[in-house]
Amino acid sequence: MELVYESGINGLRLNKIADRLDVKSPSLYTHTGSVTELRQAVIHQAMQQFREALMDSLMGRATLGAFLELGKTWMNYANEQSVFYTSFYNNEYSEFYAKNISHFLQSAFKRIFVDWPLNEEEVKQIERIMTNYFCGQIDCLNGQPYVETELISDLEIFYQGIVQKLEKVSQVC
What we know:
The chain is mainly α and 173 residues long. It has nine helices and no strands.
């Protein structure tokens, strides 16, 4: 995890691991799979940490409070662990993302918006909006701290927009 943080996921190489562990590269090959498998394991571990942080943020919260805490936790992770976070969206990790993050987020949004029955497309749309927002924020911040009041304002706008749309849909039905 430290090597990825220092040099990115593609910088993770067996010879760097061997150097860090102070062993010879050939002996490391007998105890590990391929570099691809190691990278997948690292990304999988980072996704589990991200998901756990998101889960913790929802504990004891509902509706707008849960949405704001989820968003703050999401931004903190994305900003502080941007090397890992940006790797989540590489095509080669999309299956891990679907199982570890996407599935959780969809469940979280159903819980946050429990007063409105969300269909699968609506849940996926909320996830896409939020994912795009945070990816865009990370690109803009470039490792600089974000302004929490601006984040909360953005999240409140998203939440109110989602609620308004869901109320219109439920009135039509």
